[in-house]
C-alpha cells in the first residue's frame, strides 16, 4: 500500500476548503464530484490533520463546521482497524489526532465541540484505555478549569465513553476498564459534584447560572449511573454519603427550578439504592404540578414506586394503613384524572388517543404509571387498597351524579380506577382474564355503565361513552352472556356517534365480542342471536366509514370482516350492496394505499363475501368477477405494488371456484402474469405461484391448445424460482402442477431440459429443502408418466444416471420427506419403481432393488428425519425476505390441500403389497429370493404384515 | 474442558434438544479469577494467619516449660531487640526473640517491616536449626510465622532468607509445640500463592506433614495441620501438581471423618479447592469415594463446615453427567431444598448454583430433581432471593428448559417458574435478561411440540411478559434486543392482523 503524503501547507488547505464548500452545494453535479474527490484523498497521510487545522483556524464558520462533520465521518469510517484489512489511517496521524483532539474539542464552540466529542468517543471505543492511556488524565485536569463550557465538554465526552457500561455483559475485560476509569475519574468526579452543588447554592437565585450548573449535574448524574451500573464500586461505597445526601438535596429542592431530566435520571439511580428514597420520591410526587412538562418525571417517579412496592424486601415500606391511604389519595387519584391535554387528544388527535388508550403505547403516561402502581400495590395489599379506592370511587360517582355536566371527569376517573383495580391479567385476545374478586364488575356494569350506553343521545359526554364501551370490551370475558347480548345493539347504535374515538371503540368492541368462544368452540354470540340487528349492524358499520377521519379506519374494517365471518349466509341478501361498497372503497384506497391494516381487512372482507356467497351458489362467481375485475385491472395496470399479492389471492380464490374450465377473461391475463418484473418482488411469488397453479388446474388443456407459445415463459418462471434457495420450493409447486395438469404431449420437447436444470442446481447448491422437493417431483413424475418413463429420461441424460439418483438421493434422503401428501406421492412413486420398471429386475440396477425396498419400508415405519446439516442452519435466515416484502397471506382466501393421487390409493402399504404380489406372479421365485438374501429381518417382518393385511402372498 | 464421549445417536438427540448447544457448555464452572469492583469481603477462611496467642493449643503450655505468655514478656525497643538478637549470648538472643515475637503479635500494626529492615530475618532463620536451644527455636519460629503472615512481600522476605527447608526439618522436632509452629509458618507460606505453594511441595513438605498425623496427634495440632494442607491445595493457575494432590487426598479423606468442626471445615475447603477445576480434577476427588461424606456434611450445623462442603459438591456437579450422578446418588437433592431456604444469602446462592448445574444434565437427572421437590424452592429463590441468587436460579431454569422433556418443562411452568422469570425481566443485568429470554424461547419450543403455542403466548401475555419483552426491543444491548425481537416476531407477531382464530 502506497501512502501519499499531503503537505500541511496553505495550498492544500485552500484546495480542501474549496472542495468542502462544494460538498454543501445543493446541485448534485457539483456536490457529488467534490464528495468523490474527498473520498479519493482521505487515504493520504495528513488528511485528517488538514481537517483539524481547518476546523480550528478557518475564517469561515461554515467551513469550520463542515470540516468538523467531515472529520467525524472520516473517523467513523476509518478508525477501526479490521483484521486482514489495511490500516486506513497512518500511525503518525493517529498519534497526532489523539494528542490534539481533546484540547481542540474543549476550546471549540458548541457545534464543533459536539462533533469532536463524538469523534473522541468513536476513537475511545477502539483505543481506550490501552492505546490511549492518558485520555482520562487529560480530561480530568480540565475539571479544575472552572469553565463550565469546558467542564461540560469533558463530561459529555466521558458520558459517551462510559454509557456502554450500562448495557454490556459483565466480563473481566469490561470490569478491568471500569476499574481503571474509577482510579482516575471517581475522585475528581466526586469533587466536581460537590463543587457544583456548592455553586448551585451560591447562585440559588440566578436562573441562568443554574441552567448551566444543572446541565452539568445532569451529566454528572449520568456518569454516576454508568459507573455504578455493573456493581457498586468500592470508591462509591466509601463516598456514598456524599453522593446520596446531595442527590437527596437536589430532589427536595424547590422543583420549579429543577430540570426534570435531572430528577428522572436520579430516579434510575435510586433504583440502585432504593429504600431510603421512597419518601423523598413521594414527596416529590405530591409537590409536582399537573403540567404536561412534568409528565415524564411524574410517570417515572410513580413507576419507581410501582416497581419497589411489589418486591418482597420492601413490602414493609408500604404496609402501614396511613401510608397506603396517602399514596392512594395523593399519588394515584390525582394522576388518574382526565386532564385538558387528554381532552384535546380525544377530540383532535383521536388516532394517538386510541393508540395510547387501547393499544398500550401509554408507557410514559401518568395514567398508565398510576394504573401500574395500583396493580403493584394489589400484589400484597389487595384488600386494603380495594377498600380505600371503593370509598373514592363512590364519592367521585356521587360528585358526578350531583352535576354531571360539570363533574363528568370524576366519573371518568372512577371508571379508570375500577378498571385498574379489577384487572389482574389481560390479553389482547380475551381482554381481562383474571379479575380482582373484591370488585363486583357486573354490579358496576348495571349501575354505571349500562345507563351511559342506553342514554339516547350518543353524542353527549363522548368520553364517558367511550369509557363505557371500553369497559364492555375489556371485561367481556368476565361479564355474563346476557349482559353482552344486551350491550350489542347499544354498541351498534354507538357506531353512529360523531366522536371518532367513540365509534371506533364501538366497532372494536363488537369485533372483539364476535371472536369470543362459547361452549363447543363455536362463537359465543351466534348468527341467529344477531338476526334482529344484522341489517343495522351492516348499515352502521359502512356508515361509520363515511365519517370524516374514519374513511380508512382499520377497526371498522376489521369489524366488517368479523361480522361477515360471524353472520355467514345471513349476509347473502345484502351482498349486492355490500360488494358495491367494498369495491368502491378498494378503488379509492388503491389510489394511495396508506393503511396496511385497513387494506388487509378490506381484502379479507372481499374474500369472505366470495366464499360465503359461492358456497351456496357457485354460479354467482361470475357476478363477483364482473364487479371486481375492473378494479383489479386498474390495480394491475397502475402496478399498485402493495395490493398485487392480495389481488392474486382473490383471483386464485375466484378461479378455483370454477368447475374445470377457465373463462376467457382469465386467459387474457395469462401472458401478463408471466412478466419477469412481477416475479422480481418476493411478496408476489407465493400468491402468483398459487394463481398459476389454479390456471394449470382449471386450464392446463386450454393453455396447451391455445397458448402453447406461453409454455416457454411458464418454464422460464420455474427456472428462475428453482435457482433461488429461498424460492425453489415454489418452483417445484409450479412444476408439479405443470406435470399434473398439462397434457403430456405438450411437454415432450421440454422434459429433458427440466431435468437438466434440476441437476445443475443439485450440483451447484444442494440444500435439504431442495432435495425434499426434488424427491416429491421425481416420484410425482413416476406416478404420472410411469416408472419406465422416469428411468428412461434419467438415462437419456447420461447412461446409468437413474441408478445414481436412486443410490445417492432417493435411498439415503427419502426419510426426510415431510407432509402427508408428499409422503404418499413418494410411497406410490417408489412402489412403481420397484414393481413396474423392468430395468430394476434385469440390469445392474437390480442390486438397488432391495435397498430401495428397505428404504421404502423405513419410510413407512421410522420417524421422519428432520435433522438439518450444520452448514445449512443459517440459510433460511439469509434468504428470508425482509419485513416490507413479506407476503401478506389472506386467511379467508385459504387454499385447500391438493392431493394429486387422491382416493386412487387409500393405503400405500397395501398398494406396495399388491404391487409386489403382481410382480412376483410375473416372475415367480425372484421376489422371495431377493427378499431373503438381503432385506433385514425387521423390515421383512413389517413387509409380511403388509402382505397379510392385503391378503396376498409372494410366489 | 473435556467433552464427554457420546455415541452418534446421542449426538443427534442432543442437537435436537438443545438446538445445537453443547450440553456440557451449559454447566458453568466457578469463576474465581475475577476482577472485582466491590470492596473485598473477608473470606470465610484465611489465606494467612498471625499467631497472637497459643490459645489454639492450650495443652501445649505443659509441654513447653519455656513458654511465656505475651503479657509477661519484657517490652523492649526495636534497638534493644536488634542488640539482643545480634549478641552472642543465648540468653539475650532468646530475650530479643521473645520481645520481637511480642511486638509481632500485637493486635494493631505489628512492625513487620521494621523487623525485616533491621536485618533480623537471617538471625531468626539460623536460630531455627538450633536443636539444642528449643526455646530460641520456638521463639524464632513464632516471630517468622507472624512475619510470613503479612503481605506477599513480607512472606517473600522470609522465604528468601532460606526459612523453607529449615521449617520443613523443624516439622520432625520431638517438641510438639515447635513442630506445630513450623506447621503454622509453612501454612502461611503456602497461603501466599501458587508459586510458594509449589516451592514447598518441591521441598517435600507433604510427606513431612503427613507423617505427623497419627491417632495420638492432639486435636489442636491437627487443626493447624489441616489448615496448612488446605493451603497446599489452594490456588489455580497453575493447580497444585497432580502427584501432590494424590499424596494428600487419602489423609484429607481420613480427616473428613473426624468430628472436630475446625478440622472438618479446613478439610472441606481443601476438597473444594481440589474440585474447583476441569473434570479430570473433579474425577480424582470423586474417585476417593468422599462424595457421600461431603453430602452429609452439607447438613452440618456449623456454617464453617457446611459452606465448604456445599462448595465442594457444587464443584462436583459442575463436572460430567457421571460425576454429577455420584452426588445425586449420595442424596444431594434431599439436602439442597433446605440449603436453598437457608437464612444466609450466600448459602442460597451457592445452592442455586449447584442446582443450576444439575439442571444442565440429562433428562433423567432433571427428573430426579423434580421428583425430589426442587422446583418449589427454586421458584421461591427466583421470587425472593437476593440478586446473585436469582441469577443462579435463572440459570437453573434455562438449563433445565434446554435439556428437559416436554413434560418436565410443563411441570416447571406449572410450578410458577415462568411467572417468576418474567418478573425478573425488569432487572438491569443484560446477561440475566438474555438468559431468561433463552428460557422463554425453550419453553416455546416445548409448547410447539405439544401444539400449545397459542396457549403459552396468551399465558405470557397475561403474566405481563409480552409488555416486558416488547420493551426489551429498545434495549441498548444488541443481543438482548435481538433475542427479544426474535421472540416477538416468532411467537407474538401482529395478533391483530391474524384472522386465524376464525374457522374457515
UniProtKB/TrEMBL annotation, chain A:
<protein>
    <recommendedName>
        <fullName>Exportin-2</fullName>
    </recommendedName>
</protein>
<dbReference type="InterPro" id="IPR005043">
    <property type="entry name" value="XPO2_C"/>
</dbReference>
<dbReference type="Pfam" id="PF08506">
    <property type="entry name" value="Cse1"/>
</dbReference>
<keyword id="KW-0653">Protein transport</keyword>
<feature type="domain" description="Importin N-terminal">
    <location>
        <begin position="34"/>
        <end position="107"/>
    </location>
</feature>
<keyword id="KW-0963">Cytoplasm</keyword>
<dbReference type="GO" id="GO:0006611">
    <property type="term" value="P:protein export from nucleus"/>
</dbReference>
<dbReference type="GO" id="GO:0005829">
    <property type="term" value="C:cytosol"/>
</dbReference>
<dbReference type="InterPro" id="IPR011989">
    <property type="entry name" value="ARM-like"/>
</dbReference>
<dbReference type="Pfam" id="PF03378">
    <property type="entry name" value="CAS_CSE1"/>
</dbReference>
<dbReference type="InterPro" id="IPR016024">
    <property type="entry name" value="ARM-type_fold"/>
</dbReference>
<comment type="similarity">
    <text>Belongs to the XPO2/CSE1 family.</text>
</comment>
<dbReference type="GO" id="GO:0031267">
    <property type="term" value="F:small GTPase binding"/>
</dbReference>
<dbReference type="GO" id="GO:0006606">
    <property type="term" value="P:protein import into nucleus"/>
</dbReference>
<dbReference type="Pfam" id="PF03810">
    <property type="entry name" value="IBN_N"/>
</dbReference>
<keyword id="KW-0813">Transport</keyword>
<dbReference type="GO" id="GO:0005049">
    <property type="term" value="F:nuclear export signal receptor activity"/>
</dbReference>
<keyword id="KW-0539">Nucleus</keyword>
<dbReference type="InterPro" id="IPR013713">
    <property type="entry name" value="XPO2_central"/>
</dbReference>
<dbReference type="GO" id="GO:0005635">
    <property type="term" value="C:nuclear envelope"/>
</dbReference>
<dbReference type="InterPro" id="IPR001494">
    <property type="entry name" value="Importin-beta_N"/>
</dbReference>
UniProtKB/TrEMBL annotation, chain B:
<keyword id="KW-0653">Protein transport</keyword>
<dbReference type="GO" id="GO:0005634">
    <property type="term" value="C:nucleus"/>
</dbReference>
<feature type="domain" description="IBB">
    <location>
        <begin position="1"/>
        <end position="59"/>
    </location>
</feature>
<keyword id="KW-0677">Repeat</keyword>
<dbReference type="Pfam" id="PF01749">
    <property type="entry name" value="IBB"/>
</dbReference>
<feature type="compositionally biased region" description="Basic and acidic residues">
    <location>
        <begin position="8"/>
        <end position="24"/>
    </location>
</feature>
<keyword id="KW-0813">Transport</keyword>
<feature type="repeat" description="ARM">
    <location>
        <begin position="247"/>
        <end position="289"/>
    </location>
</feature>
<protein>
    <recommendedName>
        <fullName>Importin subunit alpha</fullName>
    </recommendedName>
</protein>
<dbReference type="InterPro" id="IPR024931">
    <property type="entry name" value="Importin_alpha"/>
</dbReference>
<dbReference type="InterPro" id="IPR032413">
    <property type="entry name" value="Arm_3"/>
</dbReference>
<dbReference type="InterPro" id="IPR002652">
    <property type="entry name" value="Importin-a_IBB"/>
</dbReference>
<dbReference type="InterPro" id="IPR036975">
    <property type="entry name" value="Importin-a_IBB_sf"/>
</dbReference>
<comment type="similarity">
    <text>Belongs to the importin alpha family.</text>
</comment>
<dbReference type="Pfam" id="PF00514">
    <property type="entry name" value="Arm"/>
</dbReference>
<dbReference type="GO" id="GO:0005737">
    <property type="term" value="C:cytoplasm"/>
</dbReference>
<feature type="repeat" description="ARM">
    <location>
        <begin position="162"/>
        <end position="190"/>
    </location>
</feature>
<dbReference type="Pfam" id="PF16186">
    <property type="entry name" value="Arm_3"/>
</dbReference>
<dbReference type="InterPro" id="IPR011989">
    <property type="entry name" value="ARM-like"/>
</dbReference>
<feature type="repeat" description="ARM">
    <location>
        <begin position="373"/>
        <end position="401"/>
    </location>
</feature>
<dbReference type="InterPro" id="IPR000225">
    <property type="entry name" value="Armadillo"/>
</dbReference>
<dbReference type="InterPro" id="IPR016024">
    <property type="entry name" value="ARM-type_fold"/>
</dbReference>
Amino acid at each position: 500500500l502506497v501512502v501519499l503524503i499531503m503537505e500541511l501547507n496553505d495550498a492544500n488547505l485552500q484546495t480542501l476548503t474549496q472542495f468542502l464548500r462544494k460538498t454543501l452545494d445543493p446541485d448534485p453535479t457539483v456536490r457529488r464530484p467534490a464528495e468523490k474527490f474527498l473520498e479519493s484523498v482521505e487515504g493520504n497521510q495528513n488528511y485528517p490533520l488538514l481537517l483539524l487545522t481547518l476546523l480550528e483556524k478557518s475564517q469561515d464558520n461554515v467551513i469550520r463546521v463542515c470540516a468538523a462533520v467531515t472529520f467525524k465521518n472520516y473517523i467513523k469510517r476509518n478508525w477501526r482497524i479490521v483484521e486482514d484489512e489495511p490500516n486506513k489511517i497512518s500511525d503518525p496521524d493517529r498519534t497526532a489526532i489523539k494528542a490534539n483532539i481533546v484540547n481542540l474539542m474543549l476550546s471549540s464552540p458548541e457545534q464543533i465541540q459536539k462533533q469532536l466529542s463524538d469523534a473522541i468517543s468513536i476513537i475511545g471505543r477502539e483505543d481506550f484505555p490501552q492505546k490511549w492511556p492518558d485520555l482520562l488524565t487529560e480530561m480530568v485536569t480540565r475539571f479544575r478549569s472552572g469553565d463550565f463550557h469546558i467542564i461540560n465538554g469533558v463530561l459529555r465526552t466521558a458520558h459517551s465513553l462510559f454509557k456502554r457500561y450500562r448495557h454490556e455483559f459483565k466480563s473481566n475485560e469490561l470490569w478491568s476498564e471500569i476499574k481503571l476509569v474509577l482510579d482516575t475519574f471517581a475522585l475528581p468526579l466526586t469533587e466536581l459534584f460537590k463543587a457544583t452543588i456548592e455553586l448551585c447554592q451560591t447562585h440559588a437565585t440566578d436562573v441562568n447560572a443554574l441552567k448551566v450548573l444543572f446541565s452539568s449535574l445532569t451529566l454528572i448524574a449520568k456518569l454516576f449511573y454508568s459507573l455504578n451500573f455493573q456493581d457498586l464500586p468500592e470508591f462509591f461505597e466509601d463516598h456514598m454519603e456524599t453522593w446520596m445526601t446531595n442527590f437527596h438535596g437536589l430532589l427536595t429542592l424547590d422543583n420549579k427550578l429543577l430540570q426534570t431530566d435531572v430528577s428522572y435520571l436520579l430516579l434510575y439511580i435510586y433504583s440502585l439504592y432504593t429504600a431510603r428514597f421512597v419518601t423523598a420520591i413521594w414527596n416529590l410526587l405530591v409537590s409536582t404540578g399537573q403540567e404536561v412538562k412534568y409528565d415524564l418525571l411524574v410517570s417515572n417517579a410513580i413507576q419507581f414506586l410501582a416497581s419497589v412496592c411489589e418486591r418482597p424486601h420492601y413490602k414493609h415500606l408500604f404496609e402501614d394503613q396511613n401510608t397506603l391511604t396517602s399514596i392512594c389519595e395523593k399519588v394515584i387519584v390525582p394522576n388518574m384524572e382526565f386532564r385538558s391535554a387528554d381532552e384535546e387528544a380525544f377530540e383532535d388527535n383521536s388516532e394517538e388517543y386510541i393508540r395510547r388508550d387501547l393499544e398500550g403505547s401509554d408507557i410514559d403516561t401518568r395514567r398508565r404509571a398510576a394504573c401500574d402502581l395500583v396493580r403493584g400495590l394489589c400484589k400484597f395489599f389487595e384488600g386494603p387498597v380495594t377498600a380505600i379506592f371503593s370509598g373514592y370511587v363512590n364519592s367521585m360517582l356521587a360528585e358526578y351524579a350531583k352535576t354531571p355536566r360539570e363533574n363528568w371527569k370524576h366519573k371518568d376517573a372512577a371508571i379508570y380506577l375500577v378498571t385498574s383495580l379489577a384487572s389482574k391479567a389481560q390479553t389482547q385476545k380475551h381482554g381481562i382474564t383474571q379479575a380482582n374478586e373484591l370488585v363486583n364488575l357486573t354490579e358496576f356494569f348495571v349501575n354505571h355503565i349500562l345507563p351511559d350506553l342506553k342514554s339516547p343521545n350518543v353524542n353527549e359526554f363522548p368520553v364517558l361513552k367511550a369509557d363505557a364501551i371500553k369497559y364492555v370490551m375489556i371485561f367481556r370475558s368476565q361479564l355474563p352472556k346476557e349482559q353482552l347480548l344486551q350491550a350489542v345493539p347499544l354498541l351498534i347504535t354507538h357506531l353512529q356517534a360523531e366522536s371518532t374515538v367513540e365509534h371506533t371503540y364501538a366497532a372494536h368492541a363488537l369485533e372483539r365480542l364476535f371472536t369470543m368462544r362459547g361452549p363447543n368452540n363455536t362463537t359465543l354470540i351466534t348468527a341467529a342471536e344477531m338476526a334482529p340487528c344484522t341489517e343495522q349492524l351492516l348499515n352502521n358499520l359502512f356508515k361509520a366509514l363515511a365519517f370524516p377521519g374514519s374513511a380508512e379506519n382499520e377497526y371498522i374494517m376489521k369489524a366488517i370482516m368479523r361480522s361477515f365471518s360471524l353472520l355467514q349466509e345471513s349476509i347473502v341478501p345484502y351482498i349486492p350492496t355490500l360488494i358495491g361498497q367494498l369495491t368502491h372503497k378498494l378503488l379509492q384506497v388503491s389510489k394511495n394505499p396508506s393503511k396496511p391494516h385497513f387494506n388487509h381487512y378490506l381484502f379479507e372482507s372481499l374474500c369472505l363475501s366470495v366464499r360465503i356467497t359461492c358456497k351456496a351458489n357457485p354460479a354467482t362467481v361470475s357476478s363477483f368477477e364482473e364487479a371486481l375485475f375492473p378494479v383489479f385491472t386498474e390495480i394491475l395496470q397502475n402496478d399498485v405494488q402493495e395490493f398485487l399479492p392480495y389481488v392474486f389471492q382473490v383471483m386464485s380464490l375466484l378461479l378455483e371456484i370454477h368447475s374445470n374450465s377457465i373463462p376467457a377473461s382469465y386467459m387474457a391475463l395469462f401472458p401478463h402474469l408471466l412478466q419477469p418484473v412481477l416475479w422480481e418482488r418476493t411478496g408476489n411469488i407465493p400468491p402468483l405461484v398459487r394463481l398459476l397453479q389454479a390456471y394449470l388446474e382449471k386450464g392446463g388443456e386450454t393453455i396447451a391448445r391455445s397458448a402453447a407459445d406461453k409454455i416457454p415463459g411458464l418454464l422460464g418462471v420455474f427456472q428462475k424460482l428453482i435457482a433461488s434457495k429461498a424460492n425453489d420450493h415454489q418452483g417445484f409447486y409450479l412444476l408439479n402442477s405443470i406435470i399434473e395438469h398439462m397434457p403430456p404431449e405438450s411437454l415432450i420437447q421440454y422434459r429433458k431440459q427440466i431435468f437438466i436444470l434440476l441437476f445443475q442446481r443439485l450440483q451447484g447448491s444442494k440444500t435439504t429443502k431442495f432435495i425434499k422437493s426434488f424427491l416429491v417431483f421425481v416420484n410425482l413424475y413416476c406416478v404420472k408418466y410411469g416408472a419406465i418413463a422416469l428411468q428412461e429420461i434419467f438415462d437419456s441424460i447420461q447412461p446409468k444416471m437413474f441408478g445414481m439418483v436412486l443410490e445417492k438421493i432417493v435411498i439415503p434422503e427419502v426419510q426426510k420427506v415431510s407432509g402427508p401428501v408428499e409422503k404418499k406421492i413418494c410411497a406410490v412413486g417408489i412402489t412403481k419403481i420397484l414393481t413396474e420398471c423392468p430395468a430394476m429386475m434385469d440390469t445392474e440396477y437390480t442390486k438397488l432393488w432391495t435397498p430401495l425396498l428397505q428404504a421404502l419400508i423405513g419410510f413407512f415405519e421410522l420417524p421422519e428425519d428432520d435433522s438439518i446439516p450444520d452448514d445449512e442452519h443459517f440459510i433460511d435466515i439469509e434468504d428470508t425476505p425482509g419485513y416490507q416484502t413479506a407476503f401478506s397471506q389472506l386467511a379467508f382466501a385459504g387454499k385447500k390441500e391438493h392431493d394429486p393421487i387422491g382416493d386412487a390409493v387409500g393405503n400405500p402399504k397395501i398398494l406396495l403389497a399388491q404391487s409386489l404380489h403382481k410382480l412376483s406372479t410375473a416372475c415367480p421365485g425372484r421376489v422371495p429370493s431377493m427378499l431373503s438374501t438381503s432385506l433385514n429381518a425387521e423390515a421383512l417382518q413389517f413387509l409380511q404384515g403388509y402382505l397379510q393385511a392385503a391378503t396376498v402372498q409372494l410366489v | 474442558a473435556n467433552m464427554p464421549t457420546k455415541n452418534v445417536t446421542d449426538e443427534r438427540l442432543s442437537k435436537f434438544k438443545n438446538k445445537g448447544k453443547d450440553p456440557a457448555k451449559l454447566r458453568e464452572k466457578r469463576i474465581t479469577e475475577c476482577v472485582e469492583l466491590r470492596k473485598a469481603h473477608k473470606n470465610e477462611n484465611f489465606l494467612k494467619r498471625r499467631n497472637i496467642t497459643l490459645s489454639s493449643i492450650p495443652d501445649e503450655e505443659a509441654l513447653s516449660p519455656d513458654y511465656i505468655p505475651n503479657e509477661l514478656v519484657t517490652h523492649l525497643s526495636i534497638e534493644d531487640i536488634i542488640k539482643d538478637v545480634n549478641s552472642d549470648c543465648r540468653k539475650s538472643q532468646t530475650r530479643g526473640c521473645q520481645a520481637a515475637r511480642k511486638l509481632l503479635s500485637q493486635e494493631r500494626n505489628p512492625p513487620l517491616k521494621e523487623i525485616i529492615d533491621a536485618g533480623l530475618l537471617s538471625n531468626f532463620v539460623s536460630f531455627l536449626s538450633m536443636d539444642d536451644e528449643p526455646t530460641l527455636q520456638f521463639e524464632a519460629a513464632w516471630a517468622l510465622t507472624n512475619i510470613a503472615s503479612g503481605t506477599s512481600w513480607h512472606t517473600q522476605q522470609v522465604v528468601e532468607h532460606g526459612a523453607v527447608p529449615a521449617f520443613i526439618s523443624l516439622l520432625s522436632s520431638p517438641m510438639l509445640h515447635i513442630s506445630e509452629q513450623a506447621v503454622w509458618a509453612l501454612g502461611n507460606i503456602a497461603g501466599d500463592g501458587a508459586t510458594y505453594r509449589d516451592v514447598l511441595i518441591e521441598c517435600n513438605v507433604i510427606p513431612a506433614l503427613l507423617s505427623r498425623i497419627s491417632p495420638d496427634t492432639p486435636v489442636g495440632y491437627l487443626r493447624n495441620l489441616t489448615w496448612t494442607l488446605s493451603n497446599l491445595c489452594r490456588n489455580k493457575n497453575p493447580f497444585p501438581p497432580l502427584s501432590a494432590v494424590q499424596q494428600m487426598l487419602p489423609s484429607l479423606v481420613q480427616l473428613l471423618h473426624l468430628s472436630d468442626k475446625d478440622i472438618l471445615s479446613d478439610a472441606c475447603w481443601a476438597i473444594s479447592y481440589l474440585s474447583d477445576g476441569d473434570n479430570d480434577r473433579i474425577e480424582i476427588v470423586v474417585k476417593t469415594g468422599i462424595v457421600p461424606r461431603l453430602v452429609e456434611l452439607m447438613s452440618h450445623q456449623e456454617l464453617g463446615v457446611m459452606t465448604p462442603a456445599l462448595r465442594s459438591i457444587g464443584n462436583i456437579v459442575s463436572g460430567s453427567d457421571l460425576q454429577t450422578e455420584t452426588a445425586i446418588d449420595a442424596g444431594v437433592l434431599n439436602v439442597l431444598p433446605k440449603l436453598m431456604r437457608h437464612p444466609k444469602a450466600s448459602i442460597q446462592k451457592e445452592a442455586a448454583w449447584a442446582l443450576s448445574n444439575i439442571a444442565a444434565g440429562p433428562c433423567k437427572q432433571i427428573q430426579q430433581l423434580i421428583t425430589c421437590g426442587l422446583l418449589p424452592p427454586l421458584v421461591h429463590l427466583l421470587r425472593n432471593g437476593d440478586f446473585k441468587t436469582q441469577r443462579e436460579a435463572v440459570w437453573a431454569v434455562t438449563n433445565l428448559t434446554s435439556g428437559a422433556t416436554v413434560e418436565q418443562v410443563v411441570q416447571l411452568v406449572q410450578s410458577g417458574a415462568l411467572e417468576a422469570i418474567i418478573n425478573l425481566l425488569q432487572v438491569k443485568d443484560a446477561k440475566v435478561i438474555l438468559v431468561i429470554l433463552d428460557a422463554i424461547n425453550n419453553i416455546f419450543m416445548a409448547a410447539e411440540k405439544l401444539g400449545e403455542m397459542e396457549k403459552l403466548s396468551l399465558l405470557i401475555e397475561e403474566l405481563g411478559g409480552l409488555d416486558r419483552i416488547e420493551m426489551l426491543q429498545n434495549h441498548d444491548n444488541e443481543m438482548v434486543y435481538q433475542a427479544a425481537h426474535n421472540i416477538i416476531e416468532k411467537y407474538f407477531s401482529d395478533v391483530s392482523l391474524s384472522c386465524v382464530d376464525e374457522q374457515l
